[in-house]
Amino acid sequence: MVLVILTGMQGEVQEAKTQAGSADFSHVRAGWYDVEVVAAGYDRTKQRIQLDGAGVGGCTVTLKVATTATSVGDVPGVAIRAPKAQKELGKAEEALHTGKLGAARDHLITASRLAPANPEISYVFGIYFIETNELEKARDYLEKAVSLDPKHAAALRALGIVFLRGNAPVQAVPYLKRAIEAEPTSWRSHALLAEVYLSLGQANESVKQSERALELGHGAAAIVEPLLARAFANRGEIERAIQILEKYLQEHASDSTAREQLRDLRTVSQPKLTTEAQATSPNAPRAYQAALTTVTPFLPSSWLPSDVDEAIPPVEPDVPCDGDEVVKHAGERVREFVANVNRFTATETVRHETINRWGVASSSEKFKFDYLVSIGESRPGSLNVDEFRSGPYSSTEFPDGIATYGLPELLLIFHPYNADKYEMTCEGLTRWNGGLAWQMHLRQRNDKPSETRSYMLGENGPSYPAALKGRAWIAADSYQIIRLEIDLVHSMPEIRLVADHTIVEYGAVKFRKSAVQLWLPQTAEFYYDWRGHRGHRTHHFSNYLLFSVEDKQRISAPSGR
Asked: Which of 3, 138, 302, 354 has the fewest beta carbons under 10 Å from its own?
């Protein structure tokens, strides 16, 4: 028996067991995946592949005979997928997030007994010991995780934290370099390495790594800006450091440590900030090191995809991208879409899973609706979108009392009326659905109103606008938007909304009685954490009907163009 494990870039796991020498994953969506093959008597093998939709694409994996006999059950990482071990690990992670360290330890001990050779359990145990400040034990468990999985980037980063906290920055360097090799686009690894280099007095290297972290992390890496200012100050570039901090404080006015750091820099008279001056002025180095080495963000989520700013998906090397041109052409496609559509209907099938506190999904519920969308220009320069559902289930019957609306508005982010409300950056060219696509990062501008998404509590309750960030994949030949992934810029404590993560896949819809071809949603996934309720919903759309056309049309397979 051979076990094939398919892991998506957001951490989602699919498995297939086979004795025929091949494994079929035709049910997964298009994208990049890590495929791992485990077989008794052979070395565990792992490589990255791209599936182009409906399982198209793949790879051939050649296994090498192991030097020592093994069974699939002995292989690290497999046992954790046993429900009991996964549940105990989920309970441990939840306890760590809520500061219940004793409970976390008990659940980790139980999980270790159920899956003694699993790198993920060793990693979380290492995080637990960092939290309890038992750094030697943390190091032991994290090194065990890395020995079981040499490319476990999170464990390698955590080892860097252990040495930073233990005032041994020299020992942190090789681990953080390995973390970057394993996950080159993780901003956290670069930020930690920047802190290490600054501790070692290597300001030039610290600047380089800080700037790379800011480039990769977009707004999520803003905490690195005070670190970058310290690095410039150590190079003697006081004015540059002051400028960075002044800009940072415009958006983070409540950061008292940064404000103290800025005040101290303004009082520096010598041309270079000496080690003595640094020790007597900013408590900033210690304060920001503590912020960067907080371990809670390093804990994995067993159900919620990673924030879009945690890492950049892979792109083709050395391909120039004119982001303004991509936004312009994508906006033209969206403008054409609005001009061609007054209303459209579809059959919407919704599958809902409730996620418990430990990341375990309930059995799913299924709903079906007749779905109608109306798009129009309510006033010059402003688009209005209305959504209606009818059928055997009312939209008010959605689980957790949470109805999902707002999917069509996401496409309108790129409409010329709205595009200037977002900072948009082209990350490069990537492959998607058998074609090429420009990968664009987007983030709500602070000086523009948040109008794309809002939340309403009750039918007549107050509305709470949300700032969004995300990533779009835009076909390189047609400039049609083929995929969107959206997150909140910040959680919304005023309504107890911790997370709202949306993934939408678009495909071409052809109408027989019209020359119009529209790109409309095929599927959408929503993950939310609101008032202690956690859920995952998948929406499928079919039987599209354009308002002016009298014949139903089924959505075609995406062409990638």
From this structure: 354
> pLDDT higher for 296 or 219?
219
Report the DSSP beta bridge partners of residue 99.
none
State the amino acid at position 1 in one-letter form. M
Exposed, middle or buried by CB within 10 Å (0-12, 13-18, 19+), for 370? Answer: middle
Which pLDDT tens digit goes with each residue over 229-288? Answer: 999 999 999 999 999 999 999 988 988 888 999 998 988 744 444 443 443 333 444 555
**Confidence (pLDDT) at 288:** 53
Topology of domain 323-546, CATH: outer membrane lipoprotein receptor (LolB), chain A (2.50.20)
The closest of 80, 75, 79, 108 to 94, measured between CA atoms, is: 108
The pLDDT tens digits for 484-533 are 999 999 999 999 999 999 999 998 888 766 667 788 899 999 999 988 88
Distance CA 559, CA 435 (A): 8
Maximum distance among all alpha carbons in the chain? 79
Here the tokens at position 354 are 């409730």
Contact 411, 337 (CB under 8 A): yes
Q: Where are the domains of the chain?
A: 2-74, 82-298, 323-546
Radius of gyration of the chain (CA): 25
**Whether residue 561 has pLDDT greater than 50:** no
The CATH code that applies to domain 82-298 is: 1.25.40.10
Nearest to 197 by CA among 166, 160, 244: 160
Give 201-208 contacts, CB < 8 A, sequence gap 24+: 201/234, 201/275, 203/231, 203/232, 203/234, 203/235, 204/235, 206/230, 206/231, 206/234, 207/231, 207/232, 207/235
